[in-house]
Amino acid sequence: MGGGQTFSIDRFARLCRIVGTGMWTAADARRHFAEIELALRPLRETGRPITFLIDMRGAAVQPRETALAMGEGAACLHRETDIVAVVTGSVLHAMQVKAHSKVHCLETFQCMEEAESWMAEQRQTA
After folding, report:
1. Each residue's pLDDT tens digit, 74-113
2. Strand order in the sheet with 4-10
3. Are 94 and 108 in contact (CB under 8 A)?
4. 3-state secondary structure of 101
5. CB atoms within 10 A of CB 74
6. 45 pLDDT more than 90
7. Which of 10, 18, 20 is CA-nearest to residue 78?
8. How many whole angstroms separate alpha carbon 111 and alpha carbon 102?
9. Contact (Cβ atoms closer than 8 angstroms) between residue 49 and residue 16
10. C-alpha–C-alpha distance, residues 84 and 15, integer Å
C-alpha cells in the first residue's frame, strides 16, 4: 500500500521516536505495534514512563480498519503515565488520531518544534 513505519529508541532519554509514511493496512499496523512493544520491553520492566514522539507528517489519513487497528495497538503499547506527542500533516489526520486513541497524555501537533516543547514541559511535571 506504499507505507512504512520506522522507530528508534533512546534508552537513556526513555524516548521512542516513530515515523510513519503513506498508507498502511491493519496488518501493517498490528505488526508495527508488536515490534515496538517487544523492543520497549526492557524499558517497561523499570516501571518508569516513556515519551513517544510520533512523526506522521508523511502518512495519509488511514482507512477506518487501519485506524481502528492503530488505536488498539496504541492502547496496548502506551501506559497511563507515558507522554505521547503526534505530529501530523493535517487537521483531519490529527482528528483521526485523537478519535481512535485512548492514551491519557496524548497531544497532536502540526509542527515538530511545538511537539518537542510540549514534551519537555510534560516531562518536567511528570
Report:
1. 989 999 899 999 999 999 888 888 887 777 789 999 999 9
2. 4-10, 15-22, 51-59, 83-88, 106-109
3. yes
4. coil
5. 23
6. yes
7. 18
8. 22
9. no
10. 10
